[in-house]
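# step 3/5: fold
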Amino acid sequence: MDSLNIAAALPEILLLLAACAVLLADATGLASRWRIDRLALVALLLPVGALLWQIGQPIQHAFSGMYVGDALGHVLKLAACACVAVTLVYARAYAADRGMDRGELYALALFALLGQMIMISAGSLLVVYLGLELMSLSLYAMAAMRRDHPLSAEAAIKYFVLGALASGFLLYGMSMLYGATGTLHLGLIARGIGDGVVPGSASGIVVVFGVVFVVAGLAFKFGAVPFHMWVPDVYQGTPTVATLLIAAGPKLATFAIAFRMLAEGMIGIAADWQQMLLVLSVLSMAVGNLVAIAQTNLKRMLAYSTIAQVGFVLLGMLSGVVGGDPSGAPDAWGASMFYLVTYVLTTLGTFGVIMLVARAGHEAEEIDDLKGLGRRAPGLAFVVLILMFSLAGIPPTVGFYAKLSVLQSVVDAGMLWLAVLAVMLSLIGAFYYLRIVKTVYFDDPLDPATIEPAGDARAVMAVNGALVLMLGIVPGPLMTLCLEAVRQAFGG
């Protein structure tokens, strides 16, 4: 390892050392002097500092091209670090009330984040898979942390089995791409597809089959229909702190590997994977929005909401290449990235509310648990209103502008019918989001006790809600950041 490799991978190296330090502090008892959750938050400052130091530097290709350090990676890694930090703040009281406030929870969260960061900067199929498995194995263990809870055990088993199946799909597709092109490097795969793979030939057929399996594996990780069957059960059965860690950061990492593999590595055969993404997108928006209406469990409703939102993310990803011309791809993928980052921000708030409303011996997982929240905790209720409006795409929240930017890229690609269909399905989805607002403000509370979250959690929730509102009013800086990051990645 020379100095260039170390400098490029410094955030991951520091995060690995910090995660090991958290494990050792918990095992040796040093964490009893310093609360382990605070130690984990301090540990996150190390990779964040390294990422801030790297911002503005030219694209770095380290470890013989297997690692890519670019603006796209920096933005997504900072967002992933923020996801873990916010989750740990929200989960402090929740984890303590359920006996989960132990070192393994925080170590697993850091190792899952490490896997996500490796995925985001992967320049090789091998590194993609290594990062994916590190993230997935950490999340499997986290989903099963409540060993005395039957729903949690069932959800963990389903997550493990279906996640292993998804990894198998992805690995099989990677092996086909390697067999057809003779390389694991994504840049060389793109060159091989553009120069040496003839459509209809044996190698061309193998590449197409490889793309099918890769897209199927990515769809599993995104939770897109028809590969969505694990999402509702896992969201409902796992402890809410694990649910949030599964629902937020991994979506960013999956978007990154989708960009690296499809937009960078296989842009030459975009016509093949665009059709698959089109089917996945329409099915996800339709099934997610329609099935969510019938849900009474809040976490299960949010699971189907996630499926529908993933459909919108896929809309941007599929609309960049028109008639073989990839010139619109940076703007389309930038809009998709903006949508995903803002959706993750909203997801942090929604599951954070569930953790803050919950108390010892009671999970606030049913929609009825939010009845009368406007009287019990007016500030928290107002944040819920902002979050639901954003998920529904109602101005002036960021969800409206995010949907508008994705729909604009679809219209620019000449698929007006698809944009109209997406709007119609979003109108259906607005019903169950507005039902939450009605429950919060117009229904009588089941429990008249006031809700008083800890000061730090209350402050983070206020910032979370304010960002969802302010980014809808002034979306320009974040949108520009996403667009420039994607354009640099395409140019590099």
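# step 4/5: annotate
The first strand starts at residue 60 and ends at 62.
# step 5/5: archive (pending)
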